[in-house]
């Protein structure tokens, strides 16, 4: 019995270490490939408006630890403004920022957090602190037991989020996100945590790469 337990623990350790190696290799490769574009994006941000190129919003990491992530600045807002699913209160989206959000590249700098060990390439998306407070207790324990990721099952399979939140503002947007969208995303996250492993990560990455082709059909 003790031998079986020992073997099981060794396999878990090797799996965790292998995942970290894959994270570092993938993040490093993607950063090198994206570097020329990131420099161009940084130049556009500087020329478009005053302020830093990167922002450091807070997200909730493994075991509830607060993590400051890297993102391209897409808006001007008070640094202490409350961040929500709709953005910071009172923010003014810049011209360059609107384009970055539309292209979906504003979060490319999150790869830096992967290299630092704050995030993983594959895993439940890191959520805002205010919404983690809405997690059911049992779900919070499960989902926060591992590192958050950049790509998850919800990002691939749950493509109705934008439609569900379209044309909603302020309190109605918040309520819809918490009551309707968040439970679905939590279910995807739970499924990932309970079935996580190398092959599931590989499947998610392949589906993520093929998503643009699937949507273009």
Largest β sheet strand count, sense and barrel closure:
2 strands, antiparallel
Query: Which segments are poorly predicted (pLDDT under 50) over 5 or more consecutive residues?
Result: 6-14, 213-217
Oligomer: single chain
How much of the sequence is in beta strands? 5-15%
β-strand number: 10
Share of residues in helices: 55-70%
Structural class: mainly alpha
> Overall mean pLDDT score?
85
**Distance separating the two termini:** 53 Å
Order of SSEs: HEEEEEEEEHHEHHEHHHH
Q: How would the global form be characterised? A: globular
The domain tally reads 1
- From the alpha-carbon coordinates, what is the Rg to the nearest angstrom? 18 Å
* Strands ordered across the widest β-sheet: 1-4
Task: List the total number of helices.
Answer: 9
Observed structural traits:
217 residues; mainly alpha; two-stranded antiparallel sheet; 9 helices; 10 strands
Task: Describe this structure as you would to a colleague.
With about 220 residues, the chain is mainly alpha-helical. The protein has one domain (about 15-215). The chain is about 60% helix and about 10% strand. The protein is built from 9 helices and 10 strands. The strands form 5 sheets. Strands 1-4 form a two-stranded antiparallel sheet. β6 (about 85) and β7 form a beta hairpin. α1 (about 1-50) packs antiparallel against α2 and α1 packs antiparallel against α3 (about 110-115). The longest helix has about 45 residues, at about 1-50. It is globular and about 45 Å long.
């Amino acid at each position: 019995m003790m031998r079986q337990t020992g073997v099981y623990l060794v396999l878990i350790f090797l799996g965790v270490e292998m995942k970290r190696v894959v994270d570092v290799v993938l993040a490093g490769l993607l950063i090198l490939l994206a570097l020329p574009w990131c420099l161009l994006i940084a130049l556009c941000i500087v020329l478009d408006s005053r302020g830093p190129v990167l922002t450091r919003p807070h997200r909730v990491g493994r075991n509830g630890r607060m993590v400051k992530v890297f993102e391209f600045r897409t808006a001007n807002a008070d640094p202490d403004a409350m961040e929500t699913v709709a953005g910071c209160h009172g923010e003014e989206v810049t011209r360059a920022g609107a384009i970055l959000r539309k292209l979906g590249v504003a979060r490319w700098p999150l790869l830096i957090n992967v290299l630092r060990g704050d995030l993983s390439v594959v895993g439940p998306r890191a959520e805002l602190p205010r919404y983690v407070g809405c997690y059911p207790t049992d779900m919070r324990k499960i989902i926060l037991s591992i590192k958050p990721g950049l790509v998850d099952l919800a990002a691939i399979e749950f493509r109705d989020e934008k439609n569900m939140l379209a044309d909603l503002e302020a309190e109605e947007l918040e309520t819809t996100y918490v009551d309707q969208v968040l439970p679905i995303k939590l279910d995807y996250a739970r499924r990932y945590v309970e079935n996580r492993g190398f092959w599931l990560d590989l499947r998610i990455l392949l589906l993520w790469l093929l998503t643009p082709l699937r949507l273009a059909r």
